[in-house]
């Protein structure tokens, strides 16, 4: 019943009388968030390479270790790897987690999801019978620019959010736009990091013109919308002066 | 997966999974609509049952009876989707969350079998396995919908309750066997015609093999069927022993 106490609350300062009853809840085996993210993100990085380099067992013996004639396939590999390397760097240097751990069961579920999808989409992009996008260079260049902008945006937001917790405090503060233009999305949206993330995957879908990538993007969008709505509700609850025109993930819409 | 349906556990009312005390339940108007819906569904499945019997008597054999009830079967089985939507959108009150997932599963698998297998692969429509699951579904649904009807009217005969929580012991394996045999019979025709399959290369860089998909569906019955079956056995013990306790003090 009720919310649990925060890590930094001191027993002496709690608003109780001379006796207090403390309830403990066994959360089960836990694992640190940083560890989880490191495992979740390293998987797709290397799994993609298995398909990119066309390891023996993937596309049959005739195609092993060949490379694709399409430059977009190399580009896709670079973008995909860049994305996950960026995530790994952020996990180690940028993110500050409010809660230290999560249940151990989650890691199996999460890894299956991330790794499984990475394998599925890598299979099609690096397939010998892969067909490049219909609108050729125009489509690919547009996608690359959108990809870079969204990645920069996502990174800016993560840095901004991390700065809110700079002095080591674990309390929640309202994020506001800073001098960095990418953070101006905060005017419209509570969770622009999710907005940019969806943008990244949309650009990757356009770049590769591949249905499995599109499906993955759709699932990401759904999941992030759920997370964004939760976060948005938390903000609304905790801060009475929260900007009322902000939407959770898509400006004006969602 | 044919089943006696597993919505609602303890209470007599299939829709209100709470204690069997003075339940708030749906308002009068909603109850009215629900009763009508369940009566219509009961009638629909009775029509299918009667259709089967008449066709059997007319033909003198039990082969190829599918054609005589094809349309009402499709109509009423797909109608169950509406019911599932109502459950999920919470227009039907007091639902136990687990039962929504389970019935969703059953409805999806039944609709899949009706449309994606039996309707789509014409060659299997003359198989006896089709009759096997149609009969199982028909009996199950007649009992289930009359169970809901009587519960809503707060006049549930013990016989119906007993039937709903007992006949599944035979009907469920019967239905599952029929379903599996039908899918298995469809396999060579799917392979031959490349039904619902798309192969590389194509501009969307996607491939889907319906044949493999059907095999995976068949394999998925192995973990799922026992779970559902034992869940219902468990429900049976709870529901039927609960009634016994109520009877004793009298």
UniProtKB/TrEMBL annotation, chain A:
Domain of life: Eukaryota
Record keywords: Endoplasmic reticulum, Membrane, Oxidoreductase, Transmembrane, Transmembrane helix
Membrane-spanning ranges: 31-53, 112-130, 142-161, 181-196, 202-222
InterPro entries reported in the protein's UniProt record: 3-oxo-5_a-steroid_4-DH_C, SRD5A/TECR, TECR-like_N
Matching Pfam families: Steroid_dh, TECR_N
Residue span, TECR-like N-terminal domain: 2-26
Tagged with keyword Magnesium: no
Any GO molecular function: oxidoreductase activity, acting on the CH-CH group of donors
An annotated GO BP: very long-chain fatty acid biosynthetic process
Keyword Endoplasmic reticulum belongs to the record: yes
Record localization: Endoplasmic reticulum; Membrane
Location of the 3-oxo-5-alpha-steroid 4-dehydrogenase C-terminal domain: 101-254
Gene Ontology CC, one term: endoplasmic reticulum
Membrane topology: Multi-pass membrane protein
UniProt record similarity statement: Belongs to the steroid 5-alpha reductase family.
Protein name, per record: TECR reductase
Organism per entry: Dicaeum eximium
Gene name of the encoded protein: Tecr
TrEMBL record, chain B:
Enzyme class: lyase
Molecular-function annotations in GO: very-long-chain (3R)-3-hydroxyacyl-CoA dehydratase activity
Domain of life: Eukaryota
Transmembrane segments: 34-57, 95-118, 165-190, 210-230
Keyword Lipid metabolism assigned: yes
This protein's pathway: Lipid metabolism; fatty acid biosynthesis
A single GO BP: sphingolipid biosynthetic process
Localization: Endoplasmic reticulum membrane; Membrane
Record flagged with keyword Repressor: no
Region (Disordered): 1-24
Keywords, sorted A to Z: Endoplasmic reticulum, Fatty acid biosynthesis, Fatty acid metabolism, Lipid biosynthesis, Lipid metabolism, Lyase, Membrane, Transmembrane, Transmembrane helix
Any single GO CC term annotated in Swiss-Prot or TrEMBL for this entry: endoplasmic reticulum membrane
Role description: Catalyzes the third of the four reactions of the long-chain fatty acids elongation cycle. This endoplasmic reticulum-bound enzymatic process, allows the addition of two carbons to the chain of long- and very long-chain fatty acids/VLCFAs per cycle. This enzyme catalyzes the dehydration of the 3-hydroxyacyl-CoA intermediate into trans-2,3-enoyl-CoA, within each cycle of fatty acid elongation. Thereby, it participates to the production of VLCFAs of different chain lengths that are involved in multiple biological processes as precursors of membrane lipids and lipid mediators.
Descriptive protein name: Very-long-chain (3R)-3-hydroxyacyl-CoA dehydratase
Native source organism of the sequence: Dicaeum eximium
Gene coding for it: Hacd2
């Amino acid at each position: 019943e009720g919310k649990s106490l925060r890590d930094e609350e001191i027993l002496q300062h709690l608003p109780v009388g001379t006796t207090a009853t403390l309830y403990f809840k066994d959360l089960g085996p836990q694992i640190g968030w940083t560890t989880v993210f490191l495992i979740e993100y390293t998987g797709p990085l290397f799994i993609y390479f298995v398909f990119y380099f066309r390891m023996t067992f993937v596309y049959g013996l005739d195609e092993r270790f060949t490379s694709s004639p399409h430059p977009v396939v190399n580009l896709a590999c670079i973008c995909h790897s860049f994305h996950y390397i960026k995530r790994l760097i952020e996990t180690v240097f940028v993110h500050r987690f409010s809660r230290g751990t999560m249940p151990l069961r989650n890691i199996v579920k999460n890894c299956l999801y991330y790794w499984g999808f990475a394998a599925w989409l890598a299979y099609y992009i690096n397939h010998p019978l892969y067909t490049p996008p219909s609108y050729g260079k125009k489509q690919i260049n547009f996608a690359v620019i959108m990809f870079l902008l969204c990645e920069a945006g996502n990174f800016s937001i993560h840095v901004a959010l991390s700065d809110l917790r700079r002095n080591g405090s674990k309390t929640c503060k309202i994020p506001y736009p800073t001098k960095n233009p990418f953070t101006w999305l905060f005017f419209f949206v509570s969770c622009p990091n999710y907005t940019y993330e969806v943008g990244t995957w949309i650009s990757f879908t356009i770049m590769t013109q591949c249905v499995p990538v599109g499906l993955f993007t759709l699932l990401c969008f759904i999941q992030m919308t759920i997370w964004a709505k939760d976060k948005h509700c938390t903000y609304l609850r905790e801060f009475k002066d929260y900007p009322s025109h902000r939407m959770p993930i898509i400006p004006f819409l969602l | 997966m044919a089943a006696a349906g597993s919505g609602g556990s303890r209470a007599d009312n299939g829709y209100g999974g709470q204690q069997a005390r003075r339940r708030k339940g749906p308002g009068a108007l909603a109850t009215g609509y629900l009763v009508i819906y369940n009566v219509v569904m009961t009638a629909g499945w009775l029509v299918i049952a009667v259709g089967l019997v008449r066709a059997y008597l007319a033909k003198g054999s039990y082969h190829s009876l599918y054609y005589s009830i094809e349309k009402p079967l499709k109509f009423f089985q797909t109608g169950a989707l509406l019911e599932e939507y109502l459950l999920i959108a919470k227009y039907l009150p007091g639902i136990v969350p687990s039962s929504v997932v389970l019935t969703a599963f059953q409805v999806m698998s039944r609709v899949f079998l009706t449309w994606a297998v039996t309707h789509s692969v014409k060659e299997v429509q003359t198989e006896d396995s089709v009759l096997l699951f149609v009969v199982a579904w028909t009996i199950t649904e007649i009992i289930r919908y009359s169970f809901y009807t009587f519960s809503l009217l707060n006049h549930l005969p013990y016989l119906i309750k007993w039937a709903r929580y007992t006949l599944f012991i035979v009907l469920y394996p019967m239905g599952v066997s029929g379903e599996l045999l039908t899918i298995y019979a469809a396999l060579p025709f799917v392979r031959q015609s490349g039904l619902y399959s798309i192969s590389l290369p194509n501009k969307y860089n996607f491939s889907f093999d319906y044949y493999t998909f059907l095999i995976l569906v068949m394999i998925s019955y192995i973990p799922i069927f026992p779970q559902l079956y034992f869940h219902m056995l468990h429900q049976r013990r709870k529901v039927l022993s609960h009634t016994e306790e109520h009877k004793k003090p009298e």
